[in-house]
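My current task is to audit a protein record that another person submitted. Please read both lines and tell me whether the tokens look consistent with the sequence. Do not assume that whoever made the record got everything right. I have pasted the whole thing underneath without changing anything:

===
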Amino acid sequence: MSGKRGTRLTPDQRREQLVGIGLEMLADRALDELSTDEVARRAGISRGLLFHYFDSKRDFYRAVVRAECDRFTAATEPDAGLEPVAWMRAFIAGFVSYVLEHRQVYLALVRGAAGSHPAVADLVDGTRATIARRVRDGQRRLGLPQAPRLEVATRAWMAFAEEAAITWQMAEHGTEEELCAFIEAGHVSLLGLLDRPQTLAPR
């Protein structure tokens, strides 16, 4: 999203451009390594002008992370009119598609040090909470009753889904659709253990 020097943009367009450049740069570096000098250079403006649109480097970091978190939550929000099973599958498909397409940025923000970065930790935590609520919403839509181990199973499945999406290699493991089916099967299996947890067979 690099601009040319002298390009006239509205303030909102310029902010969007600068945030977009920041998101592009996060694909190969940590949040702390996001240089506002380089962002300004790519946009064709001075570093001082960048801080005309953002109060501080912290403010810029938050704008970048907020944009990515908004993109993530939008990608994982199914159509409210879908039937329960279709709704849950749409959620899984949106999650998988997003992580596969934005893997490095996802790692940098959600899985990396940015998740505990003092400037943005609240944004990342809020996004995780939103995704957790969606999972619980999907379970309610499916008619699952509350169970003592449901919260534990939900968190375990979210960790499983995240790891599967991050490490999945198409050439070795199969297609995106197969990954979605694998993650769905993990959800079904965990839910099946709520009432009667299985143990390893005796040696």
